[in-house]
Input
Amino acid sequence: MRKILCSIALLACSVFAHAQSDKLKIEKLNDNMYVYITYQEFKGVLYSSNALYVVTDEGVILIDTPWDKDQYVPLVEHIKREHNKEIKWVVTTHFHEDRSGGLDFFKKLGAKTYTYSLTNEILKQRNEPQAEHTFGKEKSFTFGKEKLSVYFLGEGHSLDNTVVWFPKEKVLVGGCLIKSAEATTIGNIVDGNTAAWPATMKEVKRKFKQAKTIIPGHDEWKMSGHIENTERIISTYNQQHSIKND
Output
């Protein structure tokens, strides 16, 4: 009987981890935080995109929206089914589709949407849907008794990339500013500033020395060394292209 119960528990965990399908994976970080992963193809290669949702008594906080728009509804349904909660707040970390592509969808769903003011300006310039609320280079929020702060610490992957800090859990959501420890290339920098990126990373290291978990924008997140690898990749790229760091 014990073996049967264990098998059922393992099956339940497996179903939860993979959520609706292999296009949407949910991985538990702690009692109220979940990394959710969606996928898109870039230059012929399939990439994962990491984002986060946080369950509070009053509803769910979403940090960045799914990269794959076909996973908007499955994510909402998963959260409703597993937690009996609605997504009430959405914060995005920069203007690219893998972060802000779902702003209009979640706004129409009734969520309050937030992003850095420059992100909204860029979205407006590109005739893309914008967040309902904006903030400056540093903003602290309390959503459903969960405290978080959003910081713009400098340019890098994009001119507007921000990071989100959860002080209680000491979790840093790095968005695409921070690359995974397993990354080997600099990725999409068409809207970035690689000369400024090293200084931005120094500020990230200085400010978040106490971080217990750092979630990069893409690739495997359950590793250490994300910041160090990001610095190596940027340094190598700048040396190869004779780019002087600011």
About this structure: The first strand starts at residue 24 and ends at 28.
